[in-house]
Amino acid sequence: MKSFAEIDIENKGNYLNLLSAVSKLSGLFSESAVPFINYRVAENIFCRSFEANNLSRSDTAFDADYNSVGIGLKTFISKSNNSTEKVAEFNSLSRDLKNYKGKELALKLGEYRNERINLANRVYNIGSSLYHIVARREKELLLFETEYNQIDIENIHSVKSNKASLQFEDGHNFYSFNYSKSTLFRKFIIPQSAFRLPIDIIEDPYSLILDLFSNNEFKSATDKLKKGENYVILPLYGTKKKEKFVFEKSGLNQWNAGGRKRDIGEIYIPIPIEIHKNFPNFFPERDEHFNLQIPTGEVFDAKVCQDNSKALMTNPNKALSDWLLRKVLQLKEGELATVEKLDKLGFDSVIITKNNKSEFKIDIMKTDTYNEFWE
User: Fewer CB near the last or first residue (10 Å), C or N of the chain?
Assistant: First the structure.
């Protein structure tokens, strides 16, 4: 695959121009000669320029999906030929990880890291992956791609540790794990062949902005996502005494309920009563059918049902279980969904976005997103 710099140049695109333009405005944020680019801005520029699907909201292993290629996007300052950067956070697993030390911890980190990558592969139908890097140096950007491998667990070696962190290698990359932040880092090597984009930072960007806005009229921006209007977050769990749990006989485990013979694929996503109370017009009326699109583009026939419209289900119900239980969570028939399984994969809720009264989308969201939704 050609580099994204080459793709942009061949297609006379806007990627390099946008990176350059944003970098030239670095004087708004810093007095340094090193260009400043916020990582979210870099992600948005990439996705806009290459018409890639932005995955940063779901906080999975990849930041973008470019024609079924999972892209990890990194931008960082680097004065040398390498930089060690964050690649994964394991806050929801910190309690478990404290039980391991040395090589056992390195093996467990490899397992969890690889499961997060496999999760993103399954959810978004990713066939291959790579990192796209924007390294920032004085008066220039260095752009390059590098491999996005899973950790080679069988080849983990050179394990070292101190009070603050653990370091190890896997024959492909050097990794370090910060205990207090439960964060995994990887060393990125900047190749000699990296594409160099010269940057002249504007001395007085304030005057430029004043001049720009004094002579032009612009369309006002509006929120793309409005809480309760075009999106809500639904938890895949319940809480008891502030502790999370997945219902053993309802919700994701409805198939396990008693009272009558249940189909092994019978599940629903719980809709808390607070959602209906605060956003009564978000979902259609009970038992009214609507389209629900999953991240791969497949569309399910769905509805809200049961008492108090507490359940989001599909018809056939097996469609939802085949996607969420079998493909995403990788649960076998008869295996219970648990909070531990959700924590291991790094998500415990879903986002439902609304295009209109009959067109909705669903995607997974990182752990604790439902709590953040109410903040």
Answer: C
Please give the C-alpha separations between residue 256 and each of 237, 248, 260, 325, in angstroms, as whole numbers: 15, 7, 10, 13
Rounded CA-CA distance 111/78 in Å is 29
8 Å CB contact between 62 and 119: no
Q: Are 299 and 292 in contact (CB under 8 A)?
A: yes
Look up the pTM and report it: 0.91
3-state class of 181 per DSSP?
A: coil
CA–CA distance, 363 with 375 (Å, rounded to integer): 20
pLDDT digits (tens, 9 = 90+) for 41-84: 999 999 999 999 999 888 899 999 999 999 999 999 998 999 99
3-state secondary structure of 146: strand
Angle at 341 between CA 103 and CA 62, to 5 degrees: 75
Binned at pLDDT 50, 70 and 90, residue 163 comes out as very high
Instruction: List strand residue ranges (DSSP E) for 60-148, in order.
Output: 64-66, 69-77, 82-89, 128-137, 140-147
| 255-289 per-position pLDDT tens digit | 999 888 889 999 999 999 999 999 999 999 999 99
Class of residue 112 by CB neighbours under 10 A (exposed 0-12, middle 13-18, buried 19+): buried
